[in-house]
Design brief:
Elements (H helix, E strand, L loop, with lengths): L1 E7 L5 H15 L2 E7 L15 E7 L7 H9 L6 E9 L11 H9 L2 E10 L10 H23 L12 H8 L1 H11 L2 E2 L9 H5 L5 E4 L2 E4 L8 H5 L5 E2 L30 H17 L10
Parallel strand pairs: 1-2, 1-3, 3-4, 4-5
Antiparallel strand pairs: 6-9, 7-8
Helix pairs in contact: 1-4, 2-3, 4-9
The structure holds flavin mononucleotide (FMN).
């Protein structure tokens, strides 16, 4: 039986949901699939050379891959042309998001890996503003139909690279200031003691152990990835994420909304780009005959 590994980082669950759709399709096609949750402990990372298929899945942060994905790539062994694909999720369908795998690709290329595909899913924002549940449901419904098709393409190793953006690597490099800025920003988080119910959800959820609660007092280290999991998980909205607090999106979305149409407060934002994303995804879904290639590698 063939084997696949998907190295996953997901702050608030969107990318994890997509990765699980890939796992389902891979397993339906008799590819035993491990979704490996990346943490800051790089000592027990599975060796990609032991797998037939290798994928990396992450949310786009400031038009880049989160720092932990780049750290993982740096920790991987060298290979002789190992192929891999990338799955990414973001709140916006803008083409500039295509630059987000540039650095990952550069790191892995030096180690002998070859990227053959990348798949981008628009999912509800966990930062900037809250999409309506109706929109979140539309995004998730689209992903549920599209991901199995694209996972099948990955099994077939069909090339699927997204369009390059002029000066993309330079732009991505500039935006990677986010990585160090967020480590400083993370130290400035605050918790509203009037709202906090001491459930410890923030501490338990932090993927890099950056939050410590000792005798009811909060301490924030310098490893924050700004993945937003802490504030998103807070049941009482007590978390203040410093510089980005005005953009905080708190609490889960209902991605199976069936109620009345919901007027979007930010309905004008990237309106055309969202429409294009749904249209292109719809065309690809409609054109798919539901067949999965007979993988002869
Ligand atoms: C710090 C931060 C930066 C983000 N930057 C972008 C961005 O540049 N472009 C975008 O479309 N979405 C951006 N987002 C939104 C996320 O990419 C999006 O909500 C994603 O689906 C979250 O996935 P996750 O739940 O797996 O973490 C950002 C989110 C965070 C927390």
């Amino acid at each position: 039986m063939k084997r696949a590994i998907i190295y996953l980082f997901s702050g608030t669950g969107n990318t994890a949901k997509i990765a699980s759709l890939y796992k389902d399709t891979f397993e339906k096609n008799e590819v035993d699939t491990t979704v490996f949750n990346i943490t800051s402990d790089m000592t027990a990372v599975p060796d990609p050379r032991e797998y037939d298929y290798v994928g990396f899945a992450y949310p786009i942060h400031a038009f880049n891959a989160p720092k932990i994905i780049l750290d993982l790539a740096r920790a991987l062994p060298e290979t002789d042309g190992k192929k891999y694909f990338v799955i990414k999720s973001s709140g916006e369908p803008l083409r500039i998001n295509n630059i987000s795998s540039n650095k990952l690709r550069a790191i892995l290329k030096k180690k002998g890996y070859n990227q053959f595909a990348e798949y981008h899913y628009v999912m509800p924002y966990n930062m900037i503003f809250r999409h309506t549940d109706e929109m979140a449901t539309r995004m998730w419904d689209t992903a549920k139909s599209l991901a199995p098709i694209e996972a099948a393409e990955a099994i077939c190793e069909t090339p699927h690279m997204l369009k390059r953006v002029a000066f993309g690597s330079l732009l991505a490099w500039v935006m990677r200031i986010e990585h160090s800025a967020m480590r400083v920003n993370g130290k400035c988080f605050k918790v509203d003691k009037n709202k906090c119910v001491n459930c410890g959800a923030c501490e338990k959820n932090c993927p890099v152990g950056n939050i410590k609660i000792v005798d009811g007092k909060f301490a924030f280290g310098g490893e924050c990835l700004m993945c937003a999991r802490c504030s998103f998980a807070c049941p009482t909205d007590a978390f203040d994420i410093a510089l980005l607090n005005g953009w905080r999106v708190n609490g889960r979305y209902d991605m199976s909304y069936e109620g009345e149409p919901q007027p979007a407060k930010h309905g004008w934002y990237c309106k055309k780009a969202y429409a294009r994303y749904f249209e292109n995804a719809g065309k690809k879904i409609a054109a798919n005959a539901g067949e999965i290639c007979n993988n002869e590698r």
